[in-house]
Recover the amino acids of this structure.
RNA sequence: GGGGCUGUAGCUCAGCCGGAUAGAGCGACGGUUUCCUAAACCGUAGGUCGUGGGUUCGAGUCCCGCCAGCCCCGCCA
């Protein structure tokens, strides 16, 4: 309906110009043209759209809002293009103008979407690269629940942007550099030197244990700390022994990460922190040239504007430590320059999106400010932190295992699939259905992972997220199983003889449930546009849930296969477009669908 | 101390550029199956939108104060 909304907006503006020529001209001169405030109708009984602009004009025009609305409507009715599109507008309440699109126009919109891969979503015209930076686990650690949201949300946002036609660079900014490596390598040199020059000498689980030990020593032992720092400097200086050890550790971790990504069907290009190593000195030079750099306590800093620390002094972003080493702020700045920079040493991006937890908001705000002041953000480019809240257990505290450890992502996914399998088996039992082992594994795997993804995505990402297997796997409510079931129902119609591919001429609808479904289906383009702009996947989830509800109502109350000969093709067309929209929408959430479950 | 986020029904949460009587789901209670998968559908009950001011024709939404919870605050990422 975006095209129709756009057309209506223009028609409304023209009508306002004709109704109030002097005020319209004056408003345009003040570069605040009269706004019809066109919005989707807040309730179905108000039609398809509402224009609230008359209310705002009451004061400047010194007229009653309903009188203003009447004048605008009179002008609209004089416009043949408008009367061709809409029924007679209704003025309601204090002065709302309610607009209802002609049924035949809605039916024509549905027709146009049948068989359209894009489902009415326009492709972007100017396609500049978009960077989505997400997931970002640390080398030598296992992926855990802390990586869940970034990975799932980032992937979904990338999919939506790709669907709109943007060239998307999915970057995995893995933690493969810095102090942590100094600690690990120093520790391994002492306790497991094999791991540093032989591939797979220890497995990843051991490596994680070594890492934990190293971290403990680092925190407790000053001498170890110093050696570790020296090790980092060696690594950053390109010492061959350190580099080889580092390479082996990275390979090993990378393979483990890939297993998770394969399982979740997530595509990512690894470009870790180390990638930006050669560009770090230029960051310092650049900041020096921009006269932003200040030496403080031996460290190179940029002091932030508008952000005060404990003592009321401006807060610094440290870009070079007193020992000469660089840190994450330096890397992030180098990454910003690279991503906005021109090829070959740059990505030429116009939008860069970071999907990381909300706890890093201060860090990014600081880094973005420095980049801005250094002039590294091109005119019109967008640099956005997409924050999300913590994953909490049902007790409202940070999610932990019963033993109090961090939950491994692998275990979390396993449990979701296991629970889905248990549910499925007991259901099959109850219904006295018999299915192959292959069917059970496939359905349980799909439903389990879909549930994990959907539960996360369906929540506004800003707030903390309460993780609950029971809720996400529930068969009713705003859950993946409920949505998947709607798709299964349509597949059932196709199996039972409904030819969804049949092409019909004129679509015709008679039942309110059909019209409700038509109107819901036509909202898809606006929802995608909104997610692209706001980067909130939960908006897409809400839409798909509502679409499923409207479809289930239709399915329950209106016969499809047993419909009259005249109604049948149109109803099959609705089923087809619903299935396509649900599959496409779920696909943008990274969730595959099933024909039977 | 400074900064950020959050506070909406018993629970988990939506709420779009400020717009009409604040919405879902779960849970509770009641109903629906000779018919395309009842994993569904229909209905009932449930609200001082943390709180006090302000702006506005109109505030859950914007501004200011306060309260509560979570997170961050110099050489980890």
């Amino acid at each position: 309906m975006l095209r129709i909304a756009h057309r209506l907006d223009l028609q409304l503006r023209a009508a306002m110009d004709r109704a109030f020529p002097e005020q319209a001209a004056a408003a345009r001169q003040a570069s605040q043209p009269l706004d019809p405030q066109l919005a989707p109708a807040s309730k179905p009984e108000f039609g398809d759209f509402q224009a609230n602009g008359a209310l705002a004009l009451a004061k400047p025009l010194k007229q009653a809002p309903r009188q203003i609305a009447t004048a605008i409507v009179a002008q609209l009715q004089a416009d043949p293009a408008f009367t061709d599109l809409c029924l007679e507008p209704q003025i309601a309440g204090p002065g709302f103008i309610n607009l209802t699109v002609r049924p035949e126009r809605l039916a024509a919109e549905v027709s146009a979407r049948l068989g359209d891969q894009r489902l009415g979503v326009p492709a972007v015209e100017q396609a500049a690269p978009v960077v989505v930076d997400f997931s970002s686990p640390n080398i030598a650690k296992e992926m855990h629940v802390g990586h869940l949201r970034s990975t799932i949300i980032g992937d979904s946002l990338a999919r939506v942007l790709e669907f709109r036609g943007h060239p998307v660079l999915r970057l995995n900014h893995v933690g493969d550099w810095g102090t942590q490596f100094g600690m690990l390598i120093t520790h391994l040199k002492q306790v497991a030197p094999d791991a540093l020059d032989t591939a797979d000498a220890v497995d990843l689980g051991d490596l994680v244990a070594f890492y934990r030990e190293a971290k403990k020593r680092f925190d407790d032992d000053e001498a170890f700390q110093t050696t570790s720092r020296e090790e980092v400097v060696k690594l950053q200086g390109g010492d061959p022994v350190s580099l080889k050890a580092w390479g082996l550790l990275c390979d090993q971790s990378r393979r483990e990460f890939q297993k998770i990504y394969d399982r979740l069907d997530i595509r990512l290009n690894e470009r870790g922190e180390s990638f930006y190593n050669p560009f770090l000195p230029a960051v310092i030079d650049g900041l020096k040239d921009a006269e932003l750099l200040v030496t403080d306590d031996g460290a190179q800093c940029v002091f932030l504007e508008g952000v005060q620390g404990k003592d009321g002094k401006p807060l610094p972003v440290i870009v070079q430590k007193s020992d000469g080493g660089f840190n994450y702020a330096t890397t992030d700045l180098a990454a910003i320059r690279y991503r906005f920079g021109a090829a070959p040493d740059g990505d030429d991006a116009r939008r860069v999106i970071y999907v990381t937890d909300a706890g890093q908001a201060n860090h990014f705000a600081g880094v973005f400010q420095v980049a801005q002041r250094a002039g590294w953000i091109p005119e019109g480019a967008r640099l956005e932190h997409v924050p999300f809240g913590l994953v909490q257990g049902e007790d409202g505290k940070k999610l932990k295992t019963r033993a109090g450890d961090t939950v491994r992502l692998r275990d979390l996914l396993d449990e979701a699939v296991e629970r889905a399998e248990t549910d499925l088996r007991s259901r099959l039992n109850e219904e006295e259905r018999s299915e192959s082992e292959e069917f059970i594994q496939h359905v349980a795997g799909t439903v389990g992972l879909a549930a994990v993804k959907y539960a996360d995505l369906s929540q506004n990402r800003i707030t903390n997220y309460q993780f609950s297997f029971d809720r996400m796997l529930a068969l009713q409510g705003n859950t993946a199983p409920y949505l998947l079931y709607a798709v299964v129902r349509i597949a059932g119609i196709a199996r039972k003889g409904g030819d969804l591919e049949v092409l019909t001429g004129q679509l015709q609808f008679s039942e309110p449930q059909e019209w409700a479904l038509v109107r819901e289906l036509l909202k898809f383009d606006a929802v995608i546009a909104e997610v692209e702009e706001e980067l909130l996947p939960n908006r897409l989830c809400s839409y798909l849930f509502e679409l499923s509800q409207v479809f289930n109502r239709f399915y329950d109350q209106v016969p499809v296969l047993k419909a009259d000969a005249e109604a049948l093709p149109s109803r099959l067309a609705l089923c087809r477009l619903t299935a396509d929209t649900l599959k496409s929408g779920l696909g943008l959430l990274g969730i595959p669908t099933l024909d039977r479950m």
